[in-house]
Specification:
By secondary structure, the protein is of the alpha/beta class. Helix 1 runs parallel beside helix 5.
């Protein structure tokens, strides 16, 4: 089958599976410094396989051209753009992977939103691409627990493993799976981006609170250091007091004072954040 793939490294295993048995015509991807999983591995793999890599958004006209050229599936696995579908969907068939148990958790941040809401269970859904965002018929779903030792990266990895298994089952008889898709109930609930205050470290926090914030939001976590904003890539802590609010100890490495000791941070700059602050 001819396939156009949209996505990042989150569901790389789905890309590898589809590339192993089908013809991927193109990869559409993106780069976002907020994301823990970027496009590094999937773009490299596509280039190794001779698959064109696009960072621009696909147009409705281009979707139509792919369909007319025999593309049988548009597969979306963690993509930052909403597909603008053509008016005529004759011959179009698309599957999206969404990291929640739809219809709950319609969002660009479903796993972080689930942890923010202190849910005990989340999961991953494969559904038909429809004009209503995250609203197409459900093809398959898997659930798993959110435990106190689970962080957001754990959840993304569990989603990836489950999505690969479900995709293999669906592709074994795509027509039958498509026929038995389960309509979603209508619901207006949509989880927006977590409030900036929830994503930001500050000196009044305890080590435990800083660690919990990072557990939930991982690389969305932000901190202001030396007058500039950064995304946090790694966080640890210690009980020894810090004589100053913060101290740079190496490239991208800082000590940060908190109420009961300090945090040890690895960070990267937040592009454009200074203009917002």
């Amino acid at each position: 089958m001819k396939i156009v793939y949209f996505g990042s490294d989150v569901f790389l295993s789905c890309f590898e599976y589809l590339a192993g048995g089908h013809e991927i015509l193109a990869l559409y991807t993106y780069h976002n410094e907020e994301d823990y999983f970027t496009e590094y591995a999937i773009a490299r793999r596509a280039k190794e396989l001779g698959i064109p890599v696009h960072y621009d958004q696909i147009t409705p006209e281009e979707i139509t051209q792919y369909v007319q050229g025999g593309c049988g599936l548009f597969f979306i696995g963690e993509y930052s753009h909403i597909l603008q579908l053509p008016r005529d969907l004759t011959g179009f068939r698309g599957i999206n992977v969404h990291s929640s148990l739809l219809p709950q958790g319609r969002s660009y941040y479903p796993l972080e939103g689930a942890m923010e809401r202190e849910l005990e269970t989340t999961g991953v859904t494969l559904h038909k691409v429809a004009r209503r965002l995250d609203g197409g018929d459900i093809l398959a779903q898997r659930a798993f627990s959110i435990t106190p030792d689970t962080d957001s990266v754990d959840l993304y990895l569990r989603c990836a493993g489950a999505a690969r298994e479900m995709l293999e089952e669906i592709m074994a008889d795509l027509d039958a799976a498509w026929e038995h898709g389960r309509p979603q109930p209508q619901t207006p609930d949509y989880w927006g981006r977590p409030d900036t205050a929830l994503l930001t470290l500050d000196h009044s926090m305890t080590r435990a609170r800083g660690g919990e914030l990072f557990r939930r939001y991982n690389s969305l976590t932000q901190v202001k250091l030396g007058g500039a904003w950064y995304y946090v890539r790694a966080l640890d802590g210690g009980s020894a007091p810090l004589g100053t609010e913060e101290r740079e100890i190496g490239r991208g490495r800082w000590l940060y004072r908190v109420a009961d000791g300090h945090l040890r941070l690895c960070v990267i700059p937040c592009p454009g954040k200074e203009m917002e602050s």
